[in-house]
Prior knowledge:
Strands 3-2-1-4-5-7-6 form a 7-stranded mixed sheet, with helices on both faces. It is globular, with a radius of gyration of 22 Å. Helix 9 (199-210) crosses helix 10 (215-222), helix 9 (199-210) packs across helix 12 and helix 13 (266-280) runs parallel beside helix 14. The chain has 15 helices and 7 strands. The termini are far apart. By secondary structure, it is of the alpha/beta class. It has 2 domains: 62-160 and 266-344, Rossmann fold, CATH 3.40.50.150; 183-263, DNA polymerase, domain 1.
Amino acid sequence: MTEHAMNDAAPRPPRRKRYRGKNPRNFDEKYKEHDPVRHAETVAKVIASGKTPAGSHIPIMMNECLEALALAPGMIGVDATLGYGGHAARILEMISPGGMLIGADQDPIELPKTERRLRDRGFGPECFVAVRSNYAGIAKLLAERDVRADFVFADLGCSSMQFDDPSRGFSFKHDGPLDMRMNPTRGLSAADWLARTDAAKLERVLRENADEPNAELIAMELAGRRFLSTAQLALAIQSISGIRDDEKDLTLRRVFQAIRIAVNEEFTALDAFLRSLPDCLKPGGRVAILTFHSGEDRRVKKCFQAGLRDGVFADICNGVITASPEERHENPRSTSAKLRWAVRA
Length: 345
């Protein structure tokens, strides 16, 4: 090939980053899972194995949630925790034509990705608007548009995208900065929060946010200390004497959960959300809420029961709805999910 021909040849594409072993292990190396359109077969295999593809989220109890909301074309509603947009996409399909969905999420990293994902599916501004907001601000979102909702949906807790990304610091399974903030631009990181928290407060947080039986012992060991990474905190928890080896994995989960809830003030936000719900719904309007641990579920249950007793709600679900055995097998993250619904009087 002549020098001129070589200069005119198309540049070779950059080589894919190499990783150890047969399959990628690190979050940022799972390039096929991050591009589900091009690599649908790989993504399907990951889901079939009972795992969630990197950078995505499998919506939980989809059919049960849609049934609880009793959607119809032309409805106006709110997805108060937009997340990856899986529930929102189905909701938009069911309220079309003529419907409008307000999708709220406080995560400035994931919200633009989800909005783009839904726009690519054909949901324009005439039927869908994305708003960066905590679900505690739902009343303001509706008041600004001078509407009340036919339905409100909330899928509480963290999304898989947040849990699986080491840079967000939510999980002890991946080493990363100890952050845990759903909105990394606001408030204290988990590292700063823990460094500023005394033993009495940490013990209370561990009990209230995670029902941790070893709360006093753990609080004495961790309070006021600075841990820069999730791995450092996990190692410190595992090194606490007095916790049996067969309890340590569950203890890790509870401690990380309790600190995350405190850092993001999740119970404070949930209480505000539940207080504002009746004024946000039209008569006959419906709300469906997915929770993932007892602290959340207790609040939702008591709110709905009190609303029914006081005549605020005309009907509430009889008991709690959980994922089917098939869904639990296919998506283990659905195991702890609980769904409750209510209808405005």
